[in-house]
Amino acid sequence: MADGSWYDADIDHVIISEAQIREKTAELAKQVSADYAGVTDGLLLVCVLKGAVMFMADFARALGRQGPPAELDFMAISSYGQGTTSSGVVRILKDLDRDIAGRHVVVVEDIVDSGLTLNWLLRYLESRSAASVEVVALFRKPDAVKVPVPVKYVGFDIPTEFVVGYGLDFGERYRELPYVGVLKPEVYARS
Ligand code: XMP
Ligand code: MG
């Protein structure tokens, strides 16, 4: 149904297609590029692993076409276990490699759901004295929000449904899907 690949069998329907993601990523990069045109010491893009890895790769390349120059850093935090609901408990699995004091930071996020993870992350980055911190999130579930978080750049608002693909997983699977979709109910039933 999606593009004839093996994983299509598990997907109930596609929410956002590969082409839509590509187009939106270019748009977001253009906005960020314009807003940070005057930043001389470069941006620091902070990717939250693992979900945002695809978006980070594509967003950084899109930004690279127009600048400003950016450094890439990665954090791994955990707020979800194997399941599909947020625990609100955040653990750092991998911290930033470099000091961010005085840097203009853009957090590259896959999806803002309850906002609990991002709320924690923003406070953490601010406590480390970044010059500025903004967020670009490819997806947001506006009806799921529990803590309001300032997300300056949003790709798509999507319904409050659990989605997979383009970095997003269910039990570590489906991250490699080039689109974002909803799993068939029987996939949950057999797990
Ligand atoms: P919160 O609720 O803290 O969640 O805003 C943010 C993180 O939870 C993950 N998340 C999802 N992962 N499908 C996924 O595979 C989803 O629909 C989904 N919603 C939230 C994601 O890692 C995000 O950064
Ligand atoms: Mg996940």
Notes on the structure:
It catalyses: GMP + diphosphate = guanine + 5-phospho-alpha-D-ribose 1-diphosphate; IMP + diphosphate = hypoxanthine + 5-phospho-alpha-D-ribose 1-diphosphate. This protein is an alpha/beta fold and 191 residues long. The chain is built from four helices and eight strands. The chain has helices at residues 18-35, 53-64, 116-127, 185-189, and strands at residues 11-16, 43-49, 70-78, 91-94, 104-112, 132-140, 153-157, 180-183. Strands 4-3-2-5-6-7 form a six-stranded mixed sheet. A two-stranded antiparallel ribbon has the order 1-8. Helix 2 links the parallel strand 2 and strand 3. Helix 1 (18-35) crosses helix 2 (53-64). The longest helix is centred in the N-terminal third of the chain and has 18 residues, at 18-35. The radius of gyration is 16 Å and the shape is globular. 33% of the residues are buried. Bound molecules: xanthosine-5'-monophosphate (XMP) and magnesium ion. Residues 48, 51, 79-80, 86, 109-118, 162-164, 168-169 line the site of xanthosine-5'-monophosphate.
Proportion of beta-strand residues: 25-35%
Shape: globular
* End-to-end CA span: 22 Å
Q: Write the CATH fold name.
A: Rossmann fold
> Uncertain segments of ≥5 residues (pLDDT<50)?
none
CATH class: Alpha Beta
Query: Which architecture per CATH?
Result: 3-Layer(aba) Sandwich
Number of domains: 1
**What does the average pLDDT come to?**
92
Relative helix content:
10-25%
Order of helices and strands: EHEHEEEHEEEH
Bound molecules: xanthosine-5'-monophosphate, magnesium ion
Radius of gyration: 16 Å
Main pleated-sheet profile: 6 strands, mixed
Structural class assignment: alpha/beta
Total count of helical runs of at least 4 residues: 4
Instruction: Give the strand line-up of the largest sheet.
Output: 4-3-2-5-6-7
Count of individual beta strands? 8
